[in-house]
Every structure is written in C-alpha cells, then in structure tokens.
Design goal:
The protein has a single domain, classed as 2-enoyl-CoA Hydratase, Chain A, domain 1 (Alpha-Beta Complex). The relative contact order is 0.15. A 7-stranded mixed β-sheet has the order 1-2-3-4-6-8-10. The chain contains 12 helices and 10 strands. β3, α1 and β4 form a beta-alpha-beta unit. It is of the alpha/beta class.
Length: 273
C-alpha cells in the first residue's frame, strides 16, 4: 500500500501516513480547526480508519500464518492539522448537526463506536484546543498526549451546558467509561469547565503533556503508540476493549436514538407538573 493516502482524493480532509512498521498517523485537516462534519466523518475519517485496519489486519494475518513473533504490531495516532498549532479539533458544526435527525446515528455515533472497538491501540495527539464532540473523540481513544500550553492556550472542554445543548446519550457513557472521578465528571458535564493541559493531566484526562508545538506532541504520541503497539499482536485488543466499555459501545450501535432538547424537556415537564 502506497502512502500517504488522502481522503477523499479530491479536496482531502484526512491524510494517512505510515512512518514505520506497526505505526500509522491519521492527520485531520478539515480546515485549520478540523470540524467534525458529515463529510469529514463519512468521506474522510471513517475511510481512513478502514485503510489503517485493513493494512494492519493483512500484516497480522501474515504474521499469524507464518508464526512471526515480531509481526502484527500496530497502533494509530490521530492528530489535528499539522500546519497549525491552535486546534486538535473545534468539534461539531452544531447548528447543522442538530438539524439533521440522522447525524448522530449515521455519522457521529458510528465514528465513536469505531474508535471504542478499534483492533489496535489509538493515541490522540492533542495539538491544541479540543472542544465538545472532539473531546469525546479524544476520550474514545486509548491514550491522549496534549501540548502543555506554555506557548499558547490549549483547552479541553464540553461546553454544551453553557449554550443550552443536551448531550447525546452516548456522550455520558463515554465520559463515565473513561473518567472515574465524580468531581471531574461534574466539572466536564455540568460546569463546562475549560481544562488546561496541567489540569487535564492531573485529572487523568490526558496521559502526557508536552512542551512545544504540533510536531513535538506528535513525536511523543508516536513514542506512546510504539510502546503499546505490541499489545495488538494477539489480536484481542479491540475485543477486550469492546467488553470493557460495553455500555458505551452498545449505545453507539443504536440506530433509533433521538436527542432531547431543552424545549422538549420543558414541554414534557409542563405535562407532568
């Protein structure tokens, strides 16, 4: 397979590279802030995950058949646009997504499901702000490496409570699957707290913070990926993860989910009270 691979081929929003055996990098570059749009998810990000998995599985099958103890390693790093240092991703195009009743079931939830069940370790290289839907994307990965904010601000934040947007059902399950401290969960969900990199590290939202810019974060993320890539060799990484995060995995597989709005909640309250 020849790299780099771009998705889609015309006006690419994602580029996949394969810097060394057992390591892939997915770069998101849907503009500078890598919004998680319908087109980005359906035409770029999901096909990129497919390409990585296809290549890894070919290698893994060959290693299994030849009993190659050194074969079948694998890990993938996901990074924001490498030509800038401000955003990992600015999250959704909320107005558009909220008007499409099929956005969650056809685009966003399948993306989260894919990450939660991916067969090799996933590392999010947070090279800038990581907001809302992008924070859930990053939490759906196994490891997170974040810029330390010493050169410019970088925050992790779920700010829906501040502009009146209810969380889609799987959001809470992903947060509970990955964040065990109740006070941290409260700050994320009910306060819309903007976590600095140092706060995110202290709370366990990220595993490492790195001084510098995008390439420094990416280099550290690749080191983390390589250090755990051997865990893919037995072929059960995704199977175990699917059971470990079973509630979130099940929720992101639902096709009948419809979100609740503040207006709907108020209407139902009036009927009840």
């Amino acid at each position: 397979m020849a790299y780099p691979i771009s998705f889609p081929q015309e006006q690419p929003m994602v580029t996949v590279t394969h810097p060394k055996d057992g390591l892939w990098v997915i770069e998101m570059h849907n503009g500078d802030d890598s919004r998680l749009t319908h087109e980005f998810i359906g035409n770029a990000f999901m096909p990129a995950l497919d390409a990585v998995e296809r290549h890894w599985r070919d290698n893994w099958r060959q290693a299994t058949q030849t009993k190659n103890k050194d074969g079948g390693r694998g890990a993938v790093v996901i990074v924001g646009n490498r030509k800038q240092h401000k955003f990992f991703s600015n999250g959704l195009e909320y107005e558009r997504a909220s008007k499409d009743p099929f956005f969650w079931s056809k685009f966003y939830d399948p993306m989260v499901h894919r990450l939660l069940t991916f067969p090799i370790p996933t590392v999010a290289a947070l090279n800038g702000h990581t907001f809302a839907g992008a924070m859930i994307l990053s939490l759906s990965c196994d490891y997170r490496v974040m810029v330390d904010g010493s050169k410019r601000n970088a925050w992790m934040c779920m700010n829906e409570v501040q502009f009146g947007a209810a969380w889609p059902y799987p959001f809470g399950l992903v947060v509970h699957a990955k964040v065990t401290d109740a006070q941290t969960v409260r700050k994320i969900a009910l306060e819309g707290h903007r976590f600095t990199p140092a706060e995110a590290l202290k709370c366990g939202l990220v595993d490492h913070i790195v001084p510098g810019d995008t390439e420094d974060v990416l280099n550290k993320a690749q080191q983390v990926a390589e250090s755990v890539s051997g865990h893919a060799q037995a072929g059960v990484w995704g199977v175990i993860r699917s059971d470990l995060y079973a509630s979130a995995v099940k929720a992101t597989r639902r096709s009948d989910y419809r979100g609740r709005s503040a207006a709907q909640d108020d209407f139902e309250a009036k009927a009840r009270l």
